[in-house]
Amino acid sequence: MTPVTDKQLPKCSAALARIGQLSPSLTLTLCGIVFALIASQGGNLSLSDLTDDAGVSRGGTWFAGAFSTLGLIILAFATATVTFAVRVRKQLLITRRRQSACFWIAVSTGLLLADDAFMLHDGVLAEVLHVPESLTQVLIGSIIAFVLFMFRKAVGNSFIFAVPALLCWSISVLADSLLNDRLFAVLLLEDGCKLLGICCWYQFCRDMAQRSIVEMFE
Fold this sequence. Notes:
By secondary structure, this protein is mainly α. 75% of the residues lie in helices and 0% in strands.
């Protein structure tokens, strides 16, 4: 193995620092999983009662669907964060809204929020319009990937948050589609990866919004 030279140390340190910034997402996801496990045992609920959307959860307690609701709250904050950055830049007449990376990231995040909040892929589209869940999920994922590709220069180092989010969501979708979601471990994998992806995406939106606003004063 080739040893790391003194010139490479700053770059390695910077890369490790960026990776370390994912720790809030990992911590929040771990806390959410621990809460779900404790609540399911203490409240005589199945894990699915906590991870299902609150509207369809069969649990009769106030925290039924809490795991899913937490994801919705984080997505709402992510949407609001990038929307705020877009609004500030528009008010200062710095860039046209439709040419802003944050604008299209806000649209993509809003799409994720709408899909999760109104159960589009597994409710409205699947049951009413008979559109396969996997097709809707692939379409939403393709839109997000396209936006990231089109604005890859503007995204820059923020990919450190976007890529883990996409990977986690991919694992969640595959677990939902290919494995038996009645199994405890599969349910934990599916919803744990989904929440971790949402947390990483929030960090991505926050990082993009912060850099967008800081650029105005440079």
